[in-house]
User: Fold this.
Amino acid sequence: MKPFRYLSIKYKLITLMMFISGFILLLASAGVMINEAVSFRGRMLKEFSTLTKVVGGNIIAALTFTDHEAARETLATLKVQPNIINVQIFTAQGELFAEYHFKDDQANSIHPHKQGKNGDPPPLAILKKTTEHGFLEGYPFFDDHFDLLQDIVFENQVVGTIYIQAGLDEIRSHLIWYLIACGVVFSGLGLGAYLISARLQVVISLPILELTRTVQNISDEQNYAIRAEKKSYDELGTLIDGFNAMLTQIQLRGQKLARHREQLEEKVTLRTAELALANNGLENTVLELQRAKEAAEIANRAKSEFLANMSHEIRTPMNAVLGFTELLDGLITDPIQKNYLSSVQTGGKNLMMLINDILDLSKIEAGKMDIHPEPINIAIIVEELTQIFQVKFSEKGLEWQTDISPDMPTQLMIDEVRLRQVLVNLIGNAIKFTEHGYVRLAITSASNTYESGCLDLIITVEDSGIGIPENQQKLIFEAFKQQDGQATRQYGGTGLGLAITQRLADIMGGTIRVKSKVGHGSIFKVVLNHIEVPETRVSSAPSKPSDEQQIVFDAASVLVVDDIPYNRQLIKAYFRDTLITVIEAENGHEAVRCAQQHVPALILMDLRMPLMDGYEALRKIRQIKKLQATPILAVTASAMKQELDKIKKCGFDGYMLKPVSKKTLFQKITHFLPYSVPDVVSELPEKIKTPEAESEINASTLAEVAEMIESKGADLWNIAMKTGNFGDVKKFGTYIKQLGESYTLKLLTDFGADLIFYAGSFDVENIMKTLEAYPSIPERVEKLRKQASEHPTSNIET
Ligand code: ADP
Assistant:
């Protein structure tokens, strides 16, 4: 059987109604039964009480006359009363006078009451003791009898006592019948209640069940137009009304939603169409942007290519110009010719400087300018600058003032090359734009912060020159910009110096400012922030001195690959006095062929050539087994970083940048070709001083030269070595060169010329190498002198 809570409403209602009606019926029946029992008993008592009185009255005579028989007969009349079980008559003294047992035997004779016998009436004394009201209270419904005790009174005197014991069978059977009747009524009523409740529950459950079915249908069909049918006006009717109202709202909302969805769909369709249109537009825009970007990239590449090309195209002929002037300088002695040649050299160098400036600027703008801070002594740099510009100061009669703060640390971590570039630009400008007065360089720090490992370095270049109008002070830092109306002829320049200076200051973490008043001069102030103060100086040991004049290469063949004939000729000329055989090739194809045929000891490879470039030639040569170990040096006019990176990546053994000087070439190839530095030089000049006698040099002249280079030459060399500044180096170089020219001694001329060239291009490394190689010069001259004295007739080409 299902638990109550799982029953349907129908059965719940039937069950409830049955329970309630059953319960009430039970209560009513019980009440009626109790009432019936009580009243039946009361009636019995009353009836028996009357009976005892009547019997008592009838027995008085028998008692008075002690007539037992009469008493017995009187008692026998009680037979008509089926409930009486036993009747006893006691005398006034409590003696049993007569008795009648109706159950045992109808003709019972009177005999004394036997006490203690089960079922026997108790003696009167006991009977009396147990009753207060004249009769015994028994248990009329549960005991099988009840007792009644009544005094027999005659003329106000108790003459005896009558005791009646009555059975309760009648009352019990009465009650049983009553119970049966109740059961029948109960069942009938229960059945009736069931039938009635089964019908009546419909009133409550049917609307609810219908409502449930409606809900189910709505849920299954998703049809909110269905309505529940209202069949009553009670709470269920209200519930159905509410439910229907809710359905109406849902339906309306559904309709609204549907309309909204339709509108949305329309909108979405519209927007999709618009978006598609816009996307087309956007695609076009993106495409345009893409094209613009590509165009910009192409333009940028074109610019870089242009710069690379320009650099290449200018460096290539400059290679020949500077190389051949270098060679020529050693060959001519005529001062006018020398002067012309010097102009060519100066012009060439200026051109190279301009190219370098442009390349620097494009490098900075492309973010490819790297800074390499190293420990430097700023005082030494200032000293060098003093030497460099000394001639100019004295030419213009300007006063040069330097002021380095006394508490400036000996060393600072700065990129020396870039700092030098900044200072040369600013001092160069100050000299250029000042006719009278002074130029002052001050180096200080913002505060004594270097104790914490860093300082802000302040460099001030002040002059008393023409000054800069206020409205031009910003403009001059732009590339190719000069003061308005500036006499180009008088001052020259390109307008790149300050642009580069400002950008260099910027990438070194600094700033540059100008303060100026027209006619009173200008102050340029560079502040380099957070310059590290190193604890110890890392000294860069100069490399082993190697003077190309001393180098004697063993016999070897060198393949020179270059599409420009004069570049090949130049290299050939450099090797003229050596044991090196030059093989020429004018493109990559020829290079591969020649390399395979001659197996050279070294290949000098130009990169840009028609038919096959240097990279392809390198690749092809490397594929030939016997050439795999042959050193190949790239010789390029391109100073662009990408090109140099590519060279390193492709497997070249090294590279040289055009224009290539003889010194650079010789020093570079010593890494790849066997050579020696012989003690005796075979060249032996015989005559000196006059051009006519230039091919002849004798021992006494050589002794003179030796004496001069060992006295003044040695002094100047010592100074140059000690100070290391460019002025002293140049001075020493000029002296040696002039000596060489005067005595037509090529080894001196070349030595001096190299030194001057390195000093002019601030090439510290080569200056140091050359200076350190100098002690071999007096030795060589001395050897020549000895040779000349031993072989006075020798006539050797110088
Ligand atoms: P350049 O010196 O090659 O013209 P710069 O970029 O170095 O290029 O200088 C740009 C211009 O700034 C100069 O042409 C000049 O007009 C002005 N200028 C620079 N320094 C000074 C100075 N110390 N005094 C006066 N004008 C100067």
In short: The chain is about 55% helix and 15% strand. The first strand starts at residue 84 and ends at 91.
